[in-house]
Amino acid sequence: MFEKIDKYKASIIACLICFVLGAGCVFTIYKTKTSDELEKFQTIYEILKDKWYYSNSIENLDTQLVEQAISGMVDFETDAHTNYFSMEQASQFSSSLEGSNVGIGMTFYLDANNNMVCKKVFVDSPAEKAKLRSGDVLIQVGDKICSENDSQDIISYIKENENKELKIQYVRNNTLYQTSMTPCSYDATVVCEMYDDYGYIILNSFSENSAKSFHSAMKRLEKEGIKKLVLDLRDDSGGYLTSVLDIASCLLEKDSVVFLEEKKQETIEQKTSNEYDCIDMDSIVILQNENTASAAEVLIGALKDNLKDKITTVGTTTYGKGTEQVSIPFEDGTSLKYTIAQWKTPNGTSINNTGFEPDIEVNRDEVISVTYKQMEKEEIIEKDKVHSNAKALQIYLDYLGYNVDRKDTYFSIESSNALKQYQMDHNLEATGDCDEKTFQLIASEVLLKINETHLDVQYDKAISLIVDMS
């Protein structure tokens, strides 16, 4: 155990020296001559390890000192996207880029009876193959009755039955149906819906299999003769640039420039790949928001510069990440992600730290955009006091039809009276103060109403635009 730690420590410090000096070397902790900066690092390391008062109270101190040193070394205000990842962080980051999941392939919300209501179905997933669609209410999954089980338990049950057939009971238009699905690994990044004369595609991220799913979706539109598209890139934080090139190939002619990759020594034109064929659209409306970032912004720039008048963007200004990173994994499971280039649109525009402004600005309804922190069990939002969740609470009460006089972090007396009325309506103790249980009840009721009423003003605007386009 100790031998492994010492080897890891020595290899990391050797790497640090190679990084600074640009040359290979043999390095030992105590006897190597280095630059003044690295001698200082070595001196501080030895003092903290051997002479520091608290050194005996910290487990694996030598490893922790090196880990903290590396974390500090990559912490620059000028580049928030160069990061050192611990084993857990590296695993999470890698998983987020895979874009795959095990299950039946749908998103859902819970209705008032705790049944699972289908929201969106992913392309080529078991749910799509079983012809499940938005609005279907799942009553039973295998031997699990939805209303009698926690949704997380049902999700775990589905994953545990990977590659095993499960009978599914669901209700559509007040009629009970039964089908079978086999949970398996599927791409959880693309949703495709077709309407009379336009298609609606959601692209959640640019992952390993996103291009394949996206091309499958586009071929469906082509088969139906659909020439108008709403492309939803909201909350798409990006992914692989290779995936961008492939997805752009589905929408742009061959040899079109997708982006300019500006490295330290040269600028490279990155063009569409030959993996997928272009499916021409007459009009594309892109939905974007403040969480649309990185690879998603690359695609927006490529479409705006190449297709010009065919493109209309709706929503809010995008995140503004105009740099490119690569990841270097280490044997112990950690990794370094660092910036190697800046990218620009085909016309040479940089959106780093600025983002793309929408052609038509539409802000999300405040009940959707407001955020809150998870409350502790003993935590209380008290009347006539300030609380970080008071803003969300008052917005939620207003959305549910209760009279509040403000929507900020001060929980007013009048808003407290509104809460009292809510508590009485739900057979709760009418204190006018909000504990964790009451807050979660209100938040759940709001989420249910949002889903049932399909509240989405940005989407509504995009649809109205695409319908009116000739």
Provide a descriptive summary of the structure in words.
The protein has 14 helices and 23 strands. Helix 7 (210-223) packs parallel to helix 8, helix 8 (241-249) packs parallel to helix 9 and helix 11 crosses helix 13. Strand 11, helix 7 and strand 12 form a beta-alpha-beta unit. The protein has 470 residues and is of the alpha+beta class. The relative contact order is 0.08. Mean pLDDT is 91; it is low at 1-33. The N and C termini lie far apart (70 Å).
Largest sheet data: 6 strands, antiparallel
So how many helices? 14
- Average pLDDT level: 91
What is the beta-strand fraction?
A: 15-25%
Please give the radius of gyration in angstroms. Answer: 27 Å
Uncertain regions spanning at least 5 consecutive residues? 1-33
Class based on secondary structure composition and strand pairing:
alpha+beta
Q: Describe the global form.
A: globular
**How many β-strand runs?**
23
State the end-to-end distance.
70 Å
Relative helix content: 25-40%
Which features would summarize this protein structure in a list?
disordered N terminus; 6-stranded mixed β-sheet; globular; 6-stranded antiparallel β-sheet; alpha+beta; 470 residues; 23 strands
SSE layout and pairings?
Blueprint: H1 2-21, H2 36-50, H3 61-73, E1 83-85, H4 87-98, E2 100-103, E3 106-110, E4 116-121, H5 126-129, E5 137-141, E6 144-145, H6 151-160, E7 166-172, E8 175-181, E9 184-187, E10 190-194, E11 199-203, H7 210-223, E12 228-232, H8 241-249, E13 257-262, E14 267-271, E15 283-288, H9 295-307, E16 311-315, E17 323-329, E18 335-344, E19 360-361, H10 366-369, E20 380-381, E21 385-386, H11 390-399, E22 410-411, H12 413-425, E23 434-435, H13 436-453, H14 457-468
Helix pairs in contact: 7-8, 8-9, 11-13
